[in-house]
Every structure is written in C-alpha cells, then in structure tokens.
Design goal:
It is a single chain. With 224 residues, the chain is an alpha+beta fold. The protein has 6 helices and 10 strands; from the N terminus they run ααββββαββαβαβββα. A hairpin with a 5-residue loop joins β1 and β2. α1 runs parallel beside α6, α2 packs antiparallel against α6 and α3 crosses α4. 32% of the residues are buried.
Length: 224
C-alpha cells in the first residue's frame, strides 16, 4: 500500500511539474515583449520559492520527527554534470564570492529536525536578534536561481527565517553551466546530451520547476 501511495505521489508531482511548465511556455508564446515574459516568470518563481521555503520549514510541525540527524538531505541541484564531450564538471567550480543572505527576503531552504532544539531556537530568536555565527551557520547559495541551501545551524536559521530576522553568509556558486547540459521532468535530473539519469536525486518537484523557469528566463535575457 505504501509503495502504491509513493507511486501515485510521483504521478501527481509529474503532472504538477508538467502544468507549471505548460503555463510558462504559454507565456513565452503569447506575450509579445521580453519585459512581460520576464515579469510573469519572476512572479511564478517568487511564489513557488515561498511555497517551497515554508513547506520545508514547517514540515517538523506536521509530522513526527521526520529524519534523524544522521540522514543527509541532498543538495537542491546536481553536484556535477557532463558536457558534450562527457567531461564531468562540478557545480562548485564556479564560485562567485560570499553572499550575505537576508533571512527575511531570500529563498532559504532549511530542514529543522529536532523539536526540542526548534522550540529553544524559537524562544531565543523570538526574544533576541538573530546573530550569524560563522562557525555554526553553513550554507551554499546558488545563482542565478537564487536559492540558499542550509546544511548546518538549521534550528536557529529556521527561527530566523520564521521571524524574518537577520542574515547568514554563504559561498555563492554560479550554476548557469547546468542550463545547457541538464534538464528535469520534475522527478529526476537528466544529462541533456544522452537523456541518461544523473545520480543525484531531485529533492522536490518545485526545485525542478524553479530550475526550468530560471533556465527560460536566462535564455530570454541572453536572446537564446
């Protein structure tokens, strides 16, 4: 029964991905100006990012403690990809610098896992300012999709996001190289040159939508 439910969930996610991309391609077909196309894509991106951010953040309230500290949450994007010649390229090769990430404004993906720690962080940040700790708050920031992925300091960062307080710093990586070489169907990542599945799983179908919409926006801006 569980396997059937998982299968049905996958089918539903695939359809939601499909409908979102249909909407976006209709925008490209019907809208006459570059400015209107980008305006609508930006609206879609902003709304979907908010949905994704708070869905991950609030999961701890809706379930039992849904993963142990030893379980690794996968990165939102493939760690590496292959170019036309088959050369493997890491997404971490193109570091831009250090990004100051506003917890009130940015799409910060964070996964609190311990209810007691979450309660303590809520009380602390709710009564005080959020203070960035370079030895505790670790994250990656991915451009131009503008997603910050937190992998340490999850509970205090979660409280900062919820209270819209403070900032963290994260190395910023340019992942535009993925656009030419990778695509997704909302379930898996694929090598665009031979359509083989990449090893990295897709964390959430909405990340796939954000990726493909960001790719379309990038292509419009570049006149591709």
């Amino acid at each position: 029964m569980i396997k059937r439910k998982d299968f049905l969930d996958k089918i539903e996610r695939a359809y939601e991905f499909k409908y979102a991309l249909e909407f976006a391609h209709q925008v490209l077909e019907d809208e006459k100006t570059k400015e209107d196309k980008i305006l609508i894509l930006d609206f879609m991106l902003d709304v979907i990012k908010e949905d994704l951010k708070y869905d991950f953040l609030t999961d701890i309230f809706y379930r039992e403690e849904y993963f142990d500290r030893g379980v690794r949450i996968s990165l939102p994007f493939p760690c590496s990809y292959y170019d036309e010649s088959g050369r493997r390229i890491s997404i971490f090769e193109r570091k831009i610098g250090i990004k100051k990430v506003d917890l009130a404004e940015e799409c910060v993906l964070v996964f609190p896992w311990n209810r007691e720690r979450m309660r303590e962080s809520i009380k602390n940040i709710g009564s005080n300012e959020f203070i960035y700790d370079e030895y505790n708050h670790f994250a990656h920031y991915f451009s131009p999709v503008s997603i910050c992925f937190v992998y340490n300091g999850m509970h205090s960062t979660s409280a900062g996001v919820g209270f819209k307080k403070g900032f963290i710093e994260a190395p910023e990586y340019d992942i535009t190289g993925l656009f030419k070489h990778v695509h997704t169907d909302g379930l898996y990542w694929y090598n665009s040159h031979d359509n083989s599945k990449l090893e990295d799983g897709l964390l959430d179908f909405r990340i796939g939508i954000i990726f493909e919409l960001s790719k379309l926006k990038y292509q419009i801006k570049k006149g591709l």
